[in-house]
Amino acid sequence: MEFTKYNPFVILIYFGCNILITMLTKNPVIIGISIFSSSVYTLLLMKPKKIKKVILIIVIVILIASITNPLFNSNGEIILFKIGKKEFSLEAIIYGMVASIMLIAIVIWLFSFNHLMTTEKFLHLFSKYLPNLALIIANILKLIPEFTRKINSLNESEKILSFSYENGIIGRLKSKFKLFGNLFSWAIENSIITASSMKARGYGLKGKTNYSIYKFIFKDLIMSLIFIAVTIFIIIYGSNILFNYSFYPNLTPLDFSLKPSITYITYTLFANYASLNLVKEKIKWHYLNSKIHPSPMH
Q1: What CA–CA distance (Å, rounded) separates 161 from 91?
Q2: Model confidence, pTM
Q3: Contact status, residue 202 vs residue 208, Cβ threshold 8 Å
Q4: Torsion of CA 34, 40, 46, 49, to 10 degrees
Q5: In sequence order, which residues have a C-beta less than 8 Å from that of residue 62 and are 6 or more positions away?
Q6: Which residue from 123, 109, 148 is spatially nearest to 31, judged by alpha carbons?
Q7: CA-to-CA distance for 26 and 247, rounded, in angstroms?
Q8: Other Cβ atoms within 10 Å of 17 Cβ, number
Q9: Where are the beta strands (DSSP E) in the chain?
């Protein structure tokens, strides 16, 4: 079964478990697996044009964190260089890199989650118990891509009409403020219309039943239990490598003996489950498509 077709609750558990493991540890190997796995899945979902921009942002964030962390933290035994009285240690630089990679991994997991979790899926998850919160989140998720498209549309209109190029800098500033005002008015109007429409249909009323295309079947239950069980196994079985890694005063040596290796392999398979599932479905689709439309013989 395709991962994206699981019940939204299963998808929530999967991404939540990956984010939880990433947040709990300082181990560079686990964090490395996390950012690699999240990046691979995101790249499989994204359009090729956006890949370069994402990679550039990741590199910039890592470099900034690596440089700025030693400015506020002088711990560490291996001093690489000094600027005035400020010492820059190897441990502080590596800690900055690992911390930034962990943060980026979490953001990428959330990006992939947001890509899969449509407005309908969010409403399915939370509308029964938290209708107001579900409505706000659904509106935000709906508004963000529409907001981007509207900005691009208004910018294109400005370029065609040459508003942004009149009267120099002052003219450009005025046109940008006008653009922002139009955009803000459109966003407020769009949100009010959506909220009023849903309220008119009885959204959030007690005792009101909601139709949903997402059914929690037995396979969803099994997958949810597997995801939770694997996460508990990684946290308990690999607790020593997850929680006991230290950067100060010196770096804890990485352990690749049997027990840590089992933890690393287990998490690698778990974190890449969505990617492997997507690749499998693409191969299956191409195979079936080739059977339907065989290539002409030469």
Answers
A1: 55
A2: 0.74
A3: yes
A4: 110
A5: 97, 100, 101, 104
A6: 109
A7: 9
A8: 20
A9: 79-83, 86-89
**Helices and strands of the chain, counted as H and E runs:** 11, 2
Give whole-number Cα distances, 268 to 2, 8, 65, 244, 262, in Å: 19, 23, 26, 20, 10
| Exposed/middle/buried for residue 289 (C-beta within 10 Å: 0-12, 13-18, 19+) | exposed
What own/partner pairs with CB < 8 Å and gap ≥ 24 does 257-264 have?
A: 260/29, 262/237, 262/238, 263/30, 263/234, 263/237, 263/238, 264/29, 264/30, 264/33
Structure tokens at 54: 């994402």
Q: How far apart are CA 201 and CA 195, in angstroms?
A: 10
Omega before residue 249 within 30° of 0, cis? yes
Q: Which residues touch 110 (CB under 8 Å, ≥6 apart)?
A: 15, 19
pLDDT tens digit at each of 298 positions of the chain: 678 888 888 999 999 999 999 999 989 999 999 999 998 998 888 766 666 666 777 778 777 777 776 667 767 666 767 766 777 777 778 888 888 889 889 988 988 888 887 777 777 777 666 767 766 776 676 666 777 777 777 777 766 665 545 556 666 677 777 777 777 787 777 777 777 776 777 666 666 666 567 788 889 899 999 999 999 999 999 888 888 888 777 788 888 889 889 999 999 999 999 999 988 888 888 777 777 866 555 4
Read off the tokens for 72: 């506020």
CA–CA distance, 198 with 128 (Å, rounded to integer): 14
- C-alpha distances out from residue 163 to 15, 148, 166, 170, 182, Å: 45, 20, 6, 11, 14
